[in-house]
Fold this sequence. Notes:
The structure is a homohexamer.
Chain A: E1 3-9, H1 14-32, E2 40-46, E3 51-53, E4 56-57
Parallel strand pairs in A: 1-2
Antiparallel strand pairs in A: 3-4
Amino acid sequence: xxxxxxxxxxxxxxxxxxxxxxxxxxxxxxxxxxxxxxxxxxxxxxxxxxxxxxxxxxxxx
Amino acid sequence: xxxxxxxxxxxxxxxxxxxxxxxxxxxxxxxxxxxxxxxxxxxxxxxxxxxxxxxxxxxxx
Amino acid sequence: xxxxxxxxxxxxxxxxxxxxxxxxxxxxxxxxxxxxxxxxxxxxxxxxxxxxxxxxxxxxx
Amino acid sequence: xxxxxxxxxxxxxxxxxxxxxxxxxxxxxxxxxxxxxxxxxxxxxxxxxxxxxxxxxxxxx
Amino acid sequence: xxxxxxxxxxxxxxxxxxxxxxxxxxxxxxxxxxxxxxxxxxxxxxxxxxxxxxxxxxxxx
Amino acid sequence: xxxxxxxxxxxxxxxxxxxxxxxxxxxxxxxxxxxxxxxxxxxxxxxxxxxxxxxxxxxxx
Lengths: 61, 61, 61, 61, 61, 61
């Protein structure tokens, strides 16, 4: 605890994921005054035909 | 907002996803009296061995 | 299956939720060609201090 | 209802998933005194670069 | 890891939740051959007007 | 997009939530090189009897 789930469009590099894990963990630990070791992060990568905004698929925009 | 997450068994066509995005967005906007532009939809496709009902995997039914 | 999760800001009436359940179920059944009886919908109501956009809480906008 | 979502690192065998579906369903039905037929389980398999703990990706540990 | 999310209709006793936590954890550890200490469980209690099946709210059934 | 869901034990102040929204949004925008305006954050507060670790409810630890 806390447990974080992040949905993002696929196509990030390993280095971007590394930065995401490190920075989001730090941001949470600082804001909530909890140890970094308590933070878990799940990333879910979405294909552009599995996300829609305003009724339109991302791949059709 | 609103944010919608839909879990479905894999194997839908692009046209089915397009219809889903359009119709669900419209259904939400009408019901809640909010603009269609406010609606986000995440679809997650599950393999038949990643869903279970009544203690049995979908692929075993 | 399909299973739908909808996050929305709190404050909807029972009639709005009824309409939401009915219309979203119909929209999914039509789009994916599945029976309405297969559709489950979970609604989660968020307090305005539990949602943020652009780094700002909803209650501060 | 109840609806269960389980996030796990990828790499389980079909037999492990079968056991998971059966045992978790039984555990829930017994604890909550509900029929096994009411329990749905969604499994989501994560790649080791999509999970982080203590600010570090699983694949970097 | 694994991380479990369980949606259930509100109204369970503390003892039912205790049993749920213990039994589901054991079921997962046995099935996936992982330590019980690795299992996290989130329960989310739903009001009967926040769940729908077949297009009908639970509170209207 | 990205959409973030954070589960945390209840009892944070409004200022902690404000900091969380601001810092997590910044962390994501920097890591993924996306605008802060694209980031949505959902927080879900859990009662101590709705979270379990190692088979034990949080309220029993």
